Amino acid sequence: MPPLPLHLQNSARPFIEVDHFDFWYGPKQVLHDIHLAFPENHITALIGPSGCGKTTLLRNLNRMNDLVDGIRHRGDIRLDGTSLYDPKVEVISLRKRVGMVFQKYNPFPKSIYENVIFSLRVAGRNDRRQLDEVVEKSLRQAALWDEVKDKLHESAFGLSGGQQQRLCIARAIANRPQVLLMDEPCAALDPIATLKIEELMTQLKDEFTIVIVTHNMEQARRVADLTAFFYLGKLIEYDETLSLFTQPSQIQTEAYISGRFS
Amino acid sequence: MLPMQSAESPDPLRDPAAPPRSPSPVPERFTVSKGVLRLDRFMTYVILVGGIGIIAAVFGIFVFIGSVIWPLFQSPTLTPLRELPLATSGTTLVGLDERSELPYSYDGSADLHFHSASSNLSQPLGLEPGTQITFWRQDRLNDRILLGTQDGRVGFVDISFTAKQSSPTAPRSVTGSLKLAPWLTLNNPAPVESLDYASQGERKLFGAIVNAPEGPKLLVVGQRQKKGLMGAGKLEATPPEDLTPLLAGARPIRVLLPGTADAIVVQTQTNELLYLFRAPSGWEVRQQIKPFADIDTDITVMDFLYGDVSLVLGDSKGNVRILSLNVPPGSDRRLFAETQRLKPLDTPIRHFVASRRNKSFVVAGDTQCALCYATTGTVRSILELPYTVRSLCLDAKAEHLGIVDSNGTLHLNTVHDPHPEAGWRTFFGKIWYEGYSEPKWEWQSTGGTDDFEPKLSLVPLIIGSIKGTLYAMLFAVPIALLAAIYTSQFLSASVKRIVKPAMEIMASLPSVVLGFLAALWLAPLIETKVPSILLLVLSIPLSAMIAGSIWIRVPLHQRNRLPRGAEFWLLAPLMAALGYLAWLSGPALESLLFVANLPDGSQIADFRLWWPQFTGLPYDQRNCLVVGFMMGFAVIPVIFTIAEDALSNVPPALTSAAEALGASRWQVVRTVVLPIASAGIFSALMIGLGRAVGETMIVVMATGNTPVVDAAGRLLFGDPGLGGGLFPLADHWNIFSGMRTLSANIAVELPEAAQGSTHYRTLFLGAFALFLMTFVLNTAAELLRQRLREKFKIV
């Protein structure tokens, strides 16, 4: 059983367990024996230099890597106790449990309304009143409702970058997933928009288990309860954010967070 | 320069006394080499010239096509050439020689007068003394004057011209000579009132009305020419016959004989026409018709047009109507029916002359003269004359129109009407052609005889083009689009790497090879296999559906074992097996459903016979199915390649987003990929459509090139009524008939069209129509595509 950091072992439930997980793109191994658990209703940040495998791990949590040719894995990932690689798992239903927000905001060329309810539409839910409720709730949670409530049926491309990213978050949480994966959600945004999204994340963690990949250590420090540091495909250190940033136990972690390499 | 400027507006930062600062030299590494600049300028000009050149070339083609088409829509011109006083008065007949150099006139006397520019020359006909001519008229085809005498004899005199020219520059001298034919006696020594003559090979016939004391009589007398080994032999008169009893008391006033020499058209005093026909059992009245029954006027002019199939009738109120012989539906005899009504003239019609080249004719009233064309029923030009017309004549080439006024002056006019048969109605309207039982759209540009009426409707060709395109697209679009979607979205990358180049090689197959295969291999192959093909077409989607429904019943953990994109290997064998089964069970389906009744009462399971029997539409071996299949083969790779590119270019960020939201692969395609790629897919369809519309070689080879509907099927089995009346165009859309497209028509006929002829220009008009079709289609498509792109653009 992969462990939670010590201080949480009694207070939180591990929701996602990554159990001695190795992963290859073709002949190249990109994850080496990753062994950790993400606690329920907490924000966990994955940090590390480019190419360290943090995004690969994130994309394995909803099996988005299945879209890539020539992948291979060893070990297991369990979501709430069920293996993602169990042959009985339907990938489509797995992805309904695990929402994802991408690095570059990517709304569909549809109206704001249709963007938000996309996951409901593909699940075949078409009850107008229910959809209206979902749209309002999701947009309110994404702190976007007041800005777009008068133009729900206009194209999503009319929004600013930060608004579009929040729309993508609203879209990801519309179907009430259990986990929200965020792959550098603020990389393409300016500081004000970033701040809004960070506020949003702290509100959302009451309902969702959030895993966020970020390059921005300040961001990790601001929003994450836990932080895991990856280097060259290995998990170097995993601890409560404050202690990881103030008292790193590993020398690579210290070098990284103090900016000696990136 | 600089010091002056600084003197007027002193620069506060610079000391006015200091000399202007010389610019510091630019280091060599910052300078652009002269060669680069020269090449840059050169390439700019090359590209500019090339671009303007392309635009100029396109417009040049336009101008050329336009200049070829333009004369089709020009009005004819009638220009006065010269005037010639004739020395005669009274009822005069005038005729022209080949070049209108030596007009002749005849007024019923013993002499015929030739009128050259310088002199009038009288030449005796060679009548025996005491012969008195009571009726004379010009023959329709030859320089021949028919004569009838006071004592009931009929004959004719032939006029021939000889031209002499000592040197190419010397003036021509034309002389005329006469030859009187032997007289035939009508057995009734009364004056001849009306007369016509027809000669059909060995059979010759005179028809005449004589004014006998007991009343007018209609008489015929024939001649038969013996033919031996040494050529035409002596003429032998057959005994005259009296046809007056057939008239049932009506008074005949005019008689006409068609060139077949087996019928007579008689005009009676009550303005009725009687069509008498010589059946094997003897003469009979075949038709009695009153042409102006609705307005009750007097027939003033009646004559045959060139070809002797159509009658032109003029009345005392200026109306002109054309009656044509055709076999009406439900009959087996040719009867006259009114096919055209011309715009009425202001004056009573008094004179008529028909062209000896085509269906043009000239009618004239007192001071009006109209050049008309019978096929289209149009008055092409009206001449208001300052004199009263007494007689009309046209030369053999219909290039000169002679009008004699009441003073006996011949006014010669040059007629320039190179394309009388052209016009909007000809190209796009229904026209009642000679010999047809109803107005039709018809393309038949050339015929076997001189009096053939060109049928130049572009409608069957346009329909053929649309039809070929439609069936090709019907076949190609689903296959190409579904293949593109499957290849780009579902197929594993390794198979895709083979499929795509293979399709691109398919696009490079020359269409002549495809056409050749379609005509010589495919058409005979599928001719007898229609039920099999029907089942095959059904089996393919059916096998996919069966495979799908089996697949979802497979337990999830079994399904998950199959790598993404490999489902194809499970589907393919099932599809092949089911397709083969469908192909084999075609004959069984045929014997079950497609059983035709033969005329002798027996039954046979044959789709080829069943189809015309069931639908009333013909079944051709080279039909739309073959064309659609082969043209589809040419179009599929075009659509596939472009559509596949458009689908593959949908940003992966969006497909990932959709997948991450729990959409199935098909949902991703339907809700995200297809809308975003729609503009590109639309382009693919339009390029495919353009290819299909313009495709020539395949349709030339694989269709029967029949622009008209083949009625063979109907004649064989009778018309059950599905085609024809209710769906006037159903014949044209029959999938099992051939067609002729605009492009194939140009390819087939342009080499044999005389340059500058109506036919030639009409082919260019067809090219223009083709261009217009694609232009309109492409413009509309482009507008729609822009809207799609705007709607689904990804910022």
Separation, N- and C-terminal Cα atoms of chain A: 31 Å
Instruction: Tell me the series of helices and strands of chain A, N- to C-terminal.
Output: EEEHEEHEHHHHHEHEHEEHH
Question: Segments of chain B where pLDDT lies below 50 for 5+ residues?
Answer: 1-7, 709-729
Q: In angstroms, what is the radius of gyration of chain B?
A: 39 Å
Write the layout of secondary structure elements.
The complex is a heterodimer of chains A (262) and B (795).
Chain A: E1 14-25, E2 28-39, E3 43-47, H1 54-61, E4 71-79, E5 82-83, H2 91-97, E6 98-101, H3 112-116, H4 118-122, H5 128-141, H6 145-148, H7 161-173, E7 179-183, H8 191-204, E8 209-213, H9 217-223, E9 226-231, E10 234-240, H10 241-246, H11 251-257
Helix pairs in contact in A: 5-7, 7-8
Chain B: H1 2-8, H2 34-69, E1 77-85, E2 93-95, E3 104-106, E4 111-115, E5 120-124, E6 133-138, E7 144-149, E8 153-164, E9 173-180, E10 184-185, E11 192-200, E12 203-212, E13 215-228, E14 231-237, E15 241-242, E16 252-256, E17 263-268, E18 273-279, E19 282-289, E20 299-304, E21 310-315, E22 320-326, E23 335-341, E24 351-354, E25 360-364, E26 368-373, E27 378-384, E28 389-394, E29 400-405, E30 409-416, H3 424-428, E31 443-444, E32 455-456, H4 459-490, H5 493-507, H6 511-527, H7 530-551, H8 556-559, H9 568-584, H10 586-593, E33 595-597, E34 603-605, H11 607-615, H12 624-648, H13 652-660, H14 665-694, H15 697-702, H16 712-717, H17 730-733, H18 742-749, H19 758-791
Antiparallel strand pairs in B: 1-30, 2-3, 3-4, 4-5, 6-7, 7-8, 8-9, 8-10, 11-12, 12-13, 13-14, 13-15, 16-17, 17-18, 18-19, 20-21, 21-22, 22-23, 24-25, 25-26, 26-27, 28-29, 29-30, 31-32, 33-34
Helix pairs in contact in B: 2-19, 4-12, 4-14, 5-12, 6-12, 7-9, 7-10, 12-14, 13-14, 14-19, 18-19
